[in-house]
């Protein structure tokens, strides 16, 4: 009896301590403010940001976007040969994981195709989303014999809502006059993990279909409408695999694995852009889109490049972000390593070489964005 | 007769899947079964290995032994030797209730309380606490049963000699009970080796070998390798996942059969003592 | 000298017991041990209270936000983080369009575990009866080793096998045949994923996971059927089948029910295998092959995304799901153990089939 009472008191004390510290760490909720667009007039140049080889060996842990992952795999050997004390260990896992683990400090940098939401920035003061490259996303399908199918965002939204269920639906036929479409049922494939690819795909659907915009809208996870034949896959490579094994499938796949998709026999859709032309992802069409959107990038660097105007602009284009939470950085050496890596990665003589970019289908950051990136990088201190 | 045919089918359904699973794991793991499996970590791109995961699992197992072991053993001793009947029944009951808590719930609670609220981050200690909560009831139960199964002739001899309780427990009851206690620990280890859910959000995962440090220190473990890599489509990834699955099964089976061997030895020993 | 009366279990009652617990009979060492071990013995209770309290406290905001829609709504969405609006219900602020209806997961949890239970009990009992009645003693050992092997396979390996081998096999060979049943049972009509991911595959794998729990208990109980009764029945001219029906089953029936309840408890809480096999869709399945989700698998899958929620409500929703799961597991587990207590003093082999 005495023993039990002491144990109960002990447990109460422990729980009390937990609750007190939990209360201390609950974030205050305020309505998120719209990001202010300010021009960086006295932005530091790349030379002004302190970079260099750290004194002690630093391993930078990264996880997140499976769209960014192949690019980081390409960069990893290069950063170590340029700065021997910096080692990059990239991993995949989805942009949502990249965001949350970077914000909580579990990893040094989070890879994300999606910028941080205003609520996340409010909850984690000082958190940064820093673009290091520009990528895009393709829409692939499994219909042997049919190449370069034309699709619009509105039609795709209806497919993922279950309103259009077969490939020979009049809406699809209307976009593809002269092509005989099979009556195969459409099997939409979506990401099951919290995904930046989902973010940019649903941003595209929201921009082109008002029903989708007021319904599922966009995000790293969305309330997908229930479509009975819909399949899920975790990560870009799994999307390729699932679509390859399922006749009649349609899937959204990042350009960095697009070559695998094409080798597997999947078709790449021509998407209707804001100017009415049908384009496929290529470095010219991606560059056209990012050039159109570059002037609107705010100091917070949270910018959407979806559905830009321009005859050649590809509609699903995005910045590839590294999420960094400076308040979780413990040593100045780690901060130095992160700054050095980012500045090296965005430099055309460092990581952003034509070879590296073309291997994954990315394009370099627009020059007007670089000063904003430098300002942000300068805030990474240990 | 039809009844027995159905029963035969049932027996087949029990017997074949186990074999099928083990065989398919071994077959899929074949490409990855090289010595580099033990010397490389999962980080290695050309020849990923399991060194960090195996060491991580061993570290977590050691943690379970160190934390849940003494608590469970002492708890079992109390229930067997000291507890008044109603208190004992009460405590025993709630220990068995704890055994029924799903492992993901324990992981979720450990995550909210330790990783988040106490700001330990993904850490070795929160993982060990989660695993200990999971396995504690089994250790308590087997310890208690081991003590109560000691033949009463030994207890009576101790009472007749006027020994104090602590001496009785230490010198008279513990030796015959020890194999049972050990087998309980072994079962706890088998359970914690095979668990994934409670570790997902407490241990995080580390691609490098375990480092000292209880807080803010993610650690790798075998079951995560299987869980993560089976969801990647590449054949090499599946081979690594299978290899990790194979090593996990091997460890669990070694522990289970080792535990049962110890229990069988105990029964023989105890039978000899019972005059 | 002291007459020691015994209860079942070997613990003395009467004068010896009183002498044992009278304080002045204990040395200081004894008392230290009593205290230390007593505190240790309360740790499981403390842990249980800790778990329940944390869950309840963290779940309360989500419960207030959702009200009864937790049980009636199948819309579970942690919210649109990118909207500039927030949702406010009953004074709780959550991300825009956030909805925490758990009906899908409750259906998924109940459906998978009940299908697994309904299949596992006859298979376990039938298999054990076969093993004890017809299999020669020499083979019995090796065959029961397979049962122990099944018990020892970790959950993630079941998921691995289900995803890479069993699911595709079912999808290619079994489900096409099964769909002919769709004429009679509409739930069996429809299409399925090429890799078999869905409710039925997950339930079948769960069946394999709970068979060891039921089978090992049944085996122990069958061994303890009084030889006199079973042999006597045979002597009276009954067939083996009649002996089983008249003598064995009534004797082991309560134990089977108890172990079935324990197995059900395990199936409810099974996380990783289900996560890999069931397809993780946030809506109830359209047919028996359809993808859906369970409470446990949703917590494991969505906890990651829940961390991105700036309002913190997604984490509260996870705690709410955990609380529902905990209550369901506790009810089945408690009922099982109470039934066992009634029929024998020796409780069941401890749990996860090991």
What does this molecule look like?
By secondary structure, chain A is α/β, with parallel strands linked by helices. Chain A folds into two domains: 178 residues, Periplasmic binding protein-like II (D-Maltodextrin-Binding Protein, domain 2), CATH 3.40.190; 153 residues, 3-Layer(aba) Sandwich (D-Maltodextrin-Binding Protein, domain 2). In chain A, 38% of the residues lie in helices and 16% in strands. In chain A, strands 1, 2, 3, 4, 6, 7, 8, 9 and 12 form a nine-stranded mixed sheet that branches. The longest helix of chain A is centred in the N-terminal third of the chain and has 24 residues. The N terminus of chain A is likely disordered. Chain B is mainly alpha-helical and 275 residues long. In chain B, α3 crosses α10, α5 crosses α6 and α6 crosses α8. The relative contact order of chain B is 0.15. A two-stranded antiparallel ribbon of chain C has the order 1-2. The longest helix of chain C has 39 residues. Chain C is globular, with a radius of gyration of 25 Å. The C terminus of chain C is likely disordered. The interface between A and C is large, with 50 and 52 residues.
Structural topology:
The complex is a heterotrimer of chains A (382), B (275) and C (354).
Chain A: H1 2-25, E1 58-64, H2 69-82, E2 86-89, H3 95-104, E3 109-112, H4 118-123, E4 128-141, E5 150-151, H5 153-161, H6 170-175, E6 187-191, H7 196-208, H8 210-214, E7 231-233, H9 236-245, E8 249-254, H10 258-263, E9 267-268, E10 270-272, E11 278-279, H11 283-293, E12 317-324, H12 332-346, H13 354-360, H14 370-378
Parallel strand pairs in A: 1-2, 1-3, 5-10, 6-7, 6-8
Antiparallel strand pairs in A: 3-12, 4-8, 4-9, 4-12, 10-11
Helix pairs in contact in A: 2-13, 5-7, 12-14
Chain B: H1 2-29, H2 36-39, H3 51-82, H4 85-99, H5 103-117, H6 124-148, H7 152-160, H8 165-194, H9 197-200, H10 222-229, H11 235-273
Chain C: E1 5-6, E2 12-13, H1 15-21, H2 28-66, H3 69-72, E3 76-77, E4 86-89, E5 92-95, E6 99-100, H4 103-133, H5 137-152, H6 155-178, H7 199-223, H8 227-235, H9 240-269, H10 272-277, H11 295-306, H12 313-343
Antiparallel strand pairs in C: 1-2, 3-6, 4-5
Helix pairs in contact in C: 2-12, 4-7, 4-9, 5-7, 6-7, 7-9, 8-9, 9-12, 11-12
């Amino acid at each position: 009896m005495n023993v039990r009472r002491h144990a109960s008191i002990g447990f109460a004390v422990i729980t009390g301590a937990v609750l007190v510290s939990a209360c201390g760490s609950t974030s205050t909720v305020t309505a998120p403010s719209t990001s202010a667009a300010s021009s960086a007039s006295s932005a530091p140049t790349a030379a002004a940001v302190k970079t260099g080889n750290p004194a002690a060996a630093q391993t930078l842990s990264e996880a997140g976007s499976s769209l960014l992952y192949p690019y980081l795999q390409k960069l990893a050997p290069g950063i170590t040969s340029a700065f021997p004390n910096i080692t990059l260990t990239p991993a995949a896992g989805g942009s949502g994981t990249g965001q949350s683990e970077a914000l909580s400090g579990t990893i040094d940098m989070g890879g994300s195709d999606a910028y941080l939401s205003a609520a996340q920035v409010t909850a984690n003061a000082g958190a940064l989303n820093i673009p290091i490259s520009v990528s895009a996303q393709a829409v692939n399908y499994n219909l042997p014999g049919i190449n370069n199918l034309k699709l619009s965002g509105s039609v795709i939204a209806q497919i993922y809502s279950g309103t259009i269920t077969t490939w020979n639906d009049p809406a699809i036929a209307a976009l593809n006059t002269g092509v005989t479409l099979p009556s195969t049922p459409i099997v939409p494939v979506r990401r099951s993990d919290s995904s930046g690819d989902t973010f940019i795909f649903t941003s595209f659907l929201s921009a082109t279909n008002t029903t989708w915009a007021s319904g599922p809208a966009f995000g790293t996870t969305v309330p997908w409408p229930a479509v009975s034949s819909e399949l899920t896959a975790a990560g870009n490579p799994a999307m390729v695999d699932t679509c390859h094994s399922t006749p009649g499938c349609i899937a959204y796949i990042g350009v960095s694995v697009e070559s695998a998709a094409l080798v597997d026999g999947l078709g790449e859709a021509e998407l209707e852009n804001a100017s009415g032309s049908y384009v496929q992802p290529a470095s010219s069409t991606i560059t056209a889109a990012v050039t159109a959107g570059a002037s609107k990038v705010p100091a917070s660097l949270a910018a959407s490049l979806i559905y830009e105007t321009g005859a050649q602009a590809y509609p699903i284009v995005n910045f590839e972000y590294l999420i960094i939470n400076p308040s979780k950085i413990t040593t100045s050496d780690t901060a130095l390593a992160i700054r050095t890596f980012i500045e090296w990665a965005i430099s055309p003589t460092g990581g952003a070489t034509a070879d590296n970019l073309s291997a994954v289908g990315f394009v370099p950051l627009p020059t007007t964005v670089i000063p904003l990136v430098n300002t942000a990088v300068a805030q990474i201190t240990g | 007769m039809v009844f027995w045919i159905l029963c035969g089918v049932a027996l087949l359904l029990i017997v074949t899947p186990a074999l099928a699973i083990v065989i398919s794991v071994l077959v899929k793991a074949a490409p990855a079964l090289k010595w580099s499996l033990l010397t490389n970590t999962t980080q290695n791109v050309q020849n990923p290995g399991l060194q960090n995961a195996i060491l991580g699992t061993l570290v977590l197992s050691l943690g379970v032994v160190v934390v849940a072991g003494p608590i469970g053993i002492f708890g079992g001793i109390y229930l067997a030797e000291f507890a008044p009947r109603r208190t004992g029944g009460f405590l025993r009951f709630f220990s068995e209730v704890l055994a029924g808590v799903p492992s993901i719930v324990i992981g979720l609670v450990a995550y909210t309380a330790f990783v988040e609220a106490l700001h330990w981050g993904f850490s070795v200690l929160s993982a060990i606490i989660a695993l200990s909560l999971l396995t504690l009831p089994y250790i308590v139960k087997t310890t208690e049963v081991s003590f109560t199964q000691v033949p009463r002739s030994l207890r009576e001899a101790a009472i007749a000699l006027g020994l104090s309780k602590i001496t009785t427990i230490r010198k008279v009851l513990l030796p015959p009970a020890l194999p049972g206690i050990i087998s309980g620990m072994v079962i706890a280890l088998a359970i914690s080796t095979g668990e994934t859910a409670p570790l997902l959000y407490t241990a995080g995962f580390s691609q490098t070998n375990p480092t000292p440090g209880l807080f803010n220190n993610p650690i790798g473990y075998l079951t995560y390798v299987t869980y993560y890599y089976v969801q990647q489509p590449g054949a090499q990834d599946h081979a690594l996942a299978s290899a990790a699955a194979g090593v996990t099964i091997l460890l669990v089976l070694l522990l289970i059969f080792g535990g049962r061997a110890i229990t069988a030895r105990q029964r023989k020993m105890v039978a000899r003592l019972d005059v | 000298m002291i007459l020691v009366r015994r209860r079942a279990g070997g613990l003395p009652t009467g004068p010896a017991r009183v002498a044992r617990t009278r304080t002045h009979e204990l040395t200081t060492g004894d008392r230290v041990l009593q205290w230390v071990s007593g505190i240790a013995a309360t740790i499981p209770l403390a842990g249980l209270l800790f778990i329940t309290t944390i869950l309840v406290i963290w779940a309360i905001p989500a419960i207030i936000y959702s009200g009864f829609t937790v049980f009636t709504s199948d819309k579970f969405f942690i919210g649109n983080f990118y909207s500039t609006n927030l949702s406010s219900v009953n004074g709780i602020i959550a991300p825009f369009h956030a909805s925490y209806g758990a009906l899908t997961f409750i259906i998924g949890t109940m459906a998978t575990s009940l299908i697994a239970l309904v299949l596992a009990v006859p298979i376990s009992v039938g298999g054990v009866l076969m093993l004890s009645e017809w299999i020669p003693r020499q083979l019995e050992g090796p065959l029961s080793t397979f049962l122990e092997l099944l018990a020892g396979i970790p959950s993630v390996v079941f998921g691995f096998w289900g995803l890479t081998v069993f699911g595709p096999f079912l999808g290619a060979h079994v489900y096409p045949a099964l769909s002919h049943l769709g004429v009679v049972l509409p739930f069996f009509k429809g299409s399925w994923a090429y890799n078999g991911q869905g409710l039925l595959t997950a339930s079948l794998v769960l069946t394999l996971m709970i068979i060891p729990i039921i089978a090992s208990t049944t085996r122990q109980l069958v061994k303890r059927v009084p030889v006199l009764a079973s042999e006597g029945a045979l002597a009276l001219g009954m067939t083996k089948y009649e002996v089983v029906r008249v003598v064995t089953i009534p004797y082991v029936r309560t134990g089977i029910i108890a172990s079935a309840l324990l197995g059900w408890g395990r199936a409810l809480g099974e996380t990783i295998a289900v996560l890999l096999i069931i397809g993780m869709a946030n809506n109830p399945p359209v047919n028996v092959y359809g993808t859906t989700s369970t409470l446990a698998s949703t917590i494991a899958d969505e906890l990651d995304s829940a961390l991105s929620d700036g309002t913190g409500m997604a984490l509260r929703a996870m705690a709410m799901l955990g609380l529902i799961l905990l209550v369901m597991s506790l009810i089945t587990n408690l009922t099982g153990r109470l039934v066992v207590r009634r029929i024998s003093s020796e409780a069941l082999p401890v749990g996860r089939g090991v």
